[in-house]
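Hi R.,

Here's the chain you asked about this morning:
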Amino acid sequence: MTTRRNFLKGAAASGIAFCSCGLLDAAHAQGPTPRHLPVMVKGKRIKTIDVHAHCYFRESLNLLGAEGDKVLPPVKGVPEHFIVIEKRLKEMDAMGIDMEVLSINPFWYGRERDLAAQIVKVQNEKFAELCASKPDRFAAFASLSLQFPDLAVQQLEDAVKKQGLRGAAIGSNVMGEDFSDPKFHPVWAKAEQLGAVLFIHPQSQPEMAKRYKGNGWLSNTIGNPLDTTIALQHLIFEGTLDRFPKLKVLAAHGGGYLPSYAMRSDHACFVSPQNCNAEIKLKKKPSEYINQLYFDAMVFSPEGLRHLVAQVGASQIMLGTDHPIPWEEHPVDHVFATDSLSDAQKIAILGGNAARLLEMKQV
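And here is the predicted structure, written out as tokens:
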């Protein structure tokens, strides 16, 4: 042991660094000191709202029979997806989260109509039941059978008007079909009419599976943010956001790469007009559309948050954790550690923006 310790000491001195998975886990677990509830700003109690949290319901997975288990992601936190209320509340308290807005990543887009409808019906009913049991702690985004837009329109209306859900969680595309496709316009029109939020959560790109092989879970680490970026760019460049200017779009994972490189979009059609459709005349620069979109603050550091605020504005950002998957376990602390934010901006990101967007009461 002494020899190994001396070897590591010498290696560090020579600029070589070693880190096992165990050491990485320990470093991740330490992090900032968690800020428990209640969260206060200048002596004022702030209601914190996490717009990016997940769950599953066994009742809907059981509809897939033996295939149900294949839906579950290969990550930490899978058992916790099946909510045990008191346990989930303790986890939220430890993270400084008053309310989670729950969603389920689509696993039913490739299913036939009747089965997809059954899955969505069960999930939205279970969401409504859960939220009604703890209305001060849980809200939810509905599931939609987007592969059948006419069905999705009715599901969204029922979810918002009858079940009290706050909008819908959607993937980044529907089996390769982008949201800018006119077939989806009736869904966006209904969402705009209802004032319902559409939470875009990525699903990577299966066609890139070969490139993503290897260390680092690149299909998620790179693939998910890229997937969100592609979805948002299609909504911008195809004129969908012009067609539905009041559409409330919330993007997971800080909007992917779009906020960090949005200005490149402004030059694309000048540099290569042959790759742009002259018949689509946007009402403003492509980069300017990011200021009408909304983003979770899941960018992992105060510097990342500072940059996101600089790009899209503090009014467009709200807490997101991916809980119970342990991506972001200190969301509140990153907000407080971002020194460039005013107290009013911190209050907005911690909960005020989400309360406004989702039409909730804020304390």
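One quick note: The mean pLDDT is 91.

Cheers,
M.
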